[in-house]
Design goal:
With 93 residues, the chain is mainly alpha-helical. The chain has three helices and two strands; from the N terminus they run βααβα. It has a domain of 59 residues. The two termini are 13 Å apart.
Length: 93
């Protein structure tokens, strides 16, 4: 079952709460693009990763756990022209 969040997730609050409940567990948060995280998990440099895109990788299992909303933004001069087109090519899951 996936969780739906209508409010902003604060990783600072989330990690502080986790650390209080599990003081013997150590972890590091690495912020990077999806490709780099998938590569690191695939190469066993990371145990787990959270990514925003499902990328091709033969030894990776994806499990959706959060419904997310992506919003395209652009400068008004570009976004308000007929030449600006947004195409969504893949929906996951």
């Amino acid at each position: 079952m996936r969780a739906q969040f209508r409010e902003r997730i604060s990783f600072r609050k989330l990690t502080a709460s986790f650390r209080r409940e599990h003081p013997s567990v150590f972890f590091e948060i690495i912020v990077s693009d999806s490709q780099r995280i998938v590569d690191k998990v695939s190469e066993h440099d990371l145990i787990i990763g959270i990514v925003g895109a499902k990328l091709e990788a033969r030894n990776i299992q994806y499990t959706a756990f959060l419904d997310d909303e992506l919003i395209a933004i652009g400068a008004p001069k570009i976004a308000n022209t007929a030449a600006f087109t947004l195409v969504i090519s893949q929906k996951y899951p």
